[in-house]
Structure formats: C-alpha cells, structure tokens
Write a structure and sequence with these properties.
By secondary structure, this protein is of the alpha+beta class. The protein is 29% helix and 53% strand. Strands 1, 2, 3, 4, 5, 6, 7, 8, 9 and 10 form a 10-stranded antiparallel β-sheet that branches. The protein is rod-shaped and about 100 Å long.
Length: 205
C-alpha cells in the first residue's frame, strides 16, 4: 500500500514539474515575441521620424567673374575672349547621418552648349559642407558660336552653371540621392560684372 502511494506521489510530482516546465517555456517564448515586436516598432518609428531620410540640397552661394579679358585683332580679323567663373557652393545634408557623394563635374554653359567645366571631388557632408570651384572657359568653344557676337554687341553674355551630385545616405538601409543646381546669370561687358542671377535646385531620393 505504501509503495503504491509513493509511486502516485512520484508521478504527481513529475506531472507538476512538466507542467511548470511547459509554462516557463511558454512564458519565455511570449517574452521573446513581445521584445522582437517592440524592437521592430521602435526601429519603424525612428525610421519614420528621427531618422527619416531627408533630401540633401546643393546650393550656389555666390558666382563671381575672374580674369575677364577681351579684344579684337583687326589684322586677321580675330576676336579674343577669356574669363573664369568662381563659384562657392554648399552641400547641405539635413539627415542625422552622413551623405556621401561620388566625384562629379561642374559645367559652364552658353546657350545650352558646354564651354567650361571643373571636376567636383568625391566627399561627404554632415550638416553643411562648403566648396569653392573655379570654372575655366574653353574659349574656342565659346567663340565658335555665332550668337556670341550678337550678345557681345548687346552688352551682356548669358551663361549658366550646372552641378550634379549623386550619392547615398544609410538610414537603416541604403538610400540613393541625386541633387542638382542650375544657375542662370548675365555677364555685363561694360562693367565686367555678373548680375541677374537666378538659381534652381532639384533633388530626389
């Protein structure tokens, strides 16, 4: 009789231990699932608020005329013109992480034709990154355009600068970014200055 009672007690203890073990496993699994869901929600909230990808912007702060020279050679006849454009730009990155961009080229245009350029080195911007560029004129390309003589006699030469940067921002995952700036302006022959500057900025994610 006592032996049977002991067997029943042992079986009962085993059943209780098994039940407790299953309950503990279920509780651990529940806690893990809740933790994973909470972390996923936290990452999603941060990605949509604090770390939401914002578009970097390339702005042109100033455009200045440098080394402007022109003249006529009546013996040939021939027309000579030479100058460079000093441009100060800023790459503004509003994101909390860095914006890295690859090397590119800044272009000087006359009536849609490329007449000057300068390499833009690869870099990274966190906040505002200033950059100074000097666009040197390819005089032969400009002088070969028949519209130049009309503009020169009219006293103003319409020009345009174009800068295109392609880069990426890593916020949780990699985001590709393109930012461009285009500035139209006039070079006034009489006082050798730049005026009527109008800039347009575009960016995309």
């Amino acid at each position: 009789m006592e032996t049977e009672i002991k067997k029943l007690q042992i079986e009962e203890n085993r059943a209780i231990c098994g039940y407790r073990r299953k309950s503990r496993c279920r509780w651990i699994c529940f806690c893990l699932i809740v933790t994973i869901v909470a972390l996923a929600l936290l990452i999603l909230i941060l990605a949509l608020t604090v770390f939401k990808a914002r578009r970097p912007v390339t702005t042109v702060d100033s455009v200045a005329l440098r080394n402007f020279n022109f003249g006529f050679d009546l013996t040939r006849p021939n027309f000579n013109l030479n100058f460079s454009i000093a441009t100060a730009i800023s790459v503004y990155n509003p994101n909390r992480v860095g914006f890295s961009y690859s090397g590119s080229t800044a272009v000087l245009r006359y009536r849609g034709k490329e007449v000057g350029l300068v390499p833009v080195p690869a870099g990274a911007a966190r906040g505002t990154e200033p950059m100074n560029l000097t666009l040197t004129l390819m005089a032969d390309r400009l002088i070969s355009d028949s519209n130049l003589y009309t503009d020169f006699i009219g006293g103003a030469i319409p020009m345009e600068t174009y800068i295109h940067l392609r880069g990426k921002v890593r916020i949780v995952f990699l985001i590709h970014v393109v930012t461009t700036s285009t500035c139209d302006f006039q070079i006034f022959i009489g006082n050798r200055t730049i005026s009527d500057q109008q800039c347009r900025y575009r960016n995309s994610l």
